[in-house]
Recover the amino acids of this structure.
C-alpha cells in the first residue's frame, strides 16, 4: 500500500469519526433539551444518533463531557467576538460584548443554558490557569482586564485573572437565574450585571459607570 493511499484512508476514517462524534453530540443536546442532564438516558442518545452505547462512550466518556464540549465551543465563539474588538476598547464595552454574546447565543435555548451553566460554574472552582488554558473566552478576557487596569479603569486590588473569572461567574449565574423564569429579554438582565460589576471593580476615582 502506498503512503498516499494510507494517508487518504486515515483521512477518510478521521472524517467519519468526526462526523459520528458530531452526530452523537447533537443528539445528546436534543435529549438534554427534552429531558435535562440528570434524566437523559444514554440509550436514547445512542438511538437518536444511530449508534451503539459503546460509540457514545467512545466519544464522550460521561454525559457531562457533552456539556464540556458545548461550553468549549461557546467559549470559542466568545473569544472570536472579543478578538474582533480594537485593542483599546474600554472595559465597559468589552464586558457588554460578553453580555450581548451570551444573550444572542442562549436566549432561545434556556434549557441547555441551565445545564451548561452548571458545568461552567463547577469548572470555575478549578485552578485559574487551567481555566484559561481550557476556556478561550476567559483567555481572551484576561488581556482586556489587564489593559483596563493599566488604563486606570479598574481597581488594582485584584489580579486580572481573578477579575475575569469573577465576572464570568456573575454572567453565568445571572443567565441561569433568568432561564428559570424568563421574565423579559436576557440582555435586559445581563447588561445591568455589567454595570453592577463595574461599580465594584472600578477604581474609586474612575468616572462613574452609567
Amino acid at each position: 500500500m502506498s503512503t498516499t493511499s494510507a494517508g487518504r484512508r486515515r483521512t477518510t476514517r478521521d472524517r467519519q469519526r468526526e462526523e459520528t462524534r458530531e452526530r452523537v453530540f447533537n443528539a445528546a443536546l436534543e435529549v438534554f433539551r427534552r429531558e435535562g442532564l440528570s434524566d437523559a438516558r444514554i440509550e436514547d442518545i445512542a438511538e437518536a444518533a444511530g449508534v451503539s452505547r459503546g460509540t457514545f462512550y467512545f466519544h464522550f466518556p460521561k454525559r457531562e463531557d457533552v456539556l464540556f464540549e458545548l461550553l468549549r465551543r461557546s467559549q470559542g465563539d466568545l473569544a472570536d467576538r472579543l478578538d474582533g474588538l480594537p485593542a483599546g476598547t474600554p472595559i465597559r464595552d468589552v464586558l457588554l460584548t460578553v453580555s450581548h454574546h451570551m444573550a444572542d447565543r442562549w436566549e432561545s435555548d434556556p434549557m441547555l443554558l441551565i445545564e451548561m451553566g452548571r458545568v461552567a460554574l463547577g469548572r470555575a472552582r478549578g485552578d485559574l490557569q487551567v481555566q484559561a488554558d481550557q476556556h478561550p473566552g476567559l483567555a481572551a478576557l484576561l488581556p482586556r482586564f489587564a489593559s483596563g487596569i493599566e488604563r486606570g479603569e479598574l481597581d488594582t486590588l485584584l489580579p486580572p485573572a481573578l477579575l475575569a473569572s469573577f465576572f464570568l461567574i456573575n454572567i453565568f449565574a445571572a443567565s441561569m437565574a433568568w432561564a428559570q423564569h424568563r421574565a423579559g429579554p436576557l440582555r435586559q438582565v445581563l447588561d445591568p450585571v455589567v454595570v453592577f460589576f463595574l461599580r465594584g471593580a472600578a477604581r474609586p476615582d474612575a468616572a462613574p459607570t452609567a
About this structure: The chain has a mean pLDDT of 88. The chain has two domains: 4-13+15-59, 63-201. The two ends are 69 Å apart (CA to CA).
